[in-house]
Specification:
The protein has one domain (3-158). Helix content is 70%, strand content 4%. It contains 5 helices and 2 strands; from the N terminus they run αααααββ. Helix 1 (3-29) packs antiparallel against helix 2, helix 1 (3-29) runs parallel beside helix 3 (70-97) and helix 3 runs antiparallel to helix 5 (115-142). A hairpin with a 6-residue loop joins strand 1 and strand 2 (156-158). Strands 1-2 form a two-stranded antiparallel ribbon.
């Protein structure tokens, strides 16, 4: 087992742990929804956390199979974590503050905060897009089929 395989295996395990922890937190967050300043945004946060937890669990299972080097897998891993939690943080801030309709009008409805609150939500939410796209591109690249030549055989083996 080479260094990249060990890193990928650990990162996959971490994604599974984060996904299960997020499921636990969203289960508890459900009790707080009626007490939030923007309950409809709280429901959206709840659904988003459920989606992200399932995504992280699925990627945690796939992660050890990625064909990425140690450095590239670290970049993909941390960009994925940032993307997942940045957008979730923006939704949580909006639900607590009763703000966010400038950035996420469908989820926030009429919940409008101060200029500062709306700017913070926008900056945090928008930071998740490029990091998520880069991470998903690296993950897609890591899922490619690579042909290796086996030293014992003269034919090419596909993994």
């Amino acid at each position: 087992m080479n260094a990249a395989s060990i890193v990928l295996s650990r990162q996959g395990q971490r994604l599974l742990q984060i996904g299960v922890t997020l499921l636990l937190l969203l289960s508890l967050e459900g009790f707080a929804i009626p007490h939030l300043a923007a309950p409809q945004l709280g429901v959206s946060t709840h659904k988003l956390a459920a989606l992200q937890s399932v995504l992280l669990l699925a990627l945690g299972l796939v992660w050890p199979r990625l064909n990425l080097g140690a450095a590239t897998s670290r970049i993909a891993f941390w960009l994925l974590i940032h993307a997942a939690f940045a957008i979730l943080a923006a939704f949580v801030m909006g639900a607590i503050w009763g703000a966010g309709n400038e950035t996420m009008p469908l989820a926030a409805g009429t919940a409008h905060g101060s200029a500062f609150q709306e700017t913070v939500i926008r900056v945090v939410a928008y930071s998740s897009a490029p990091t998520g796209l880069i991470s998903f591109a690296l993950i897609s690249w890591g899922l490619r089929i690579v042909e290796h030549t086996s030293p014992e055989r003269t034919k090419t083996v596909r993994y």
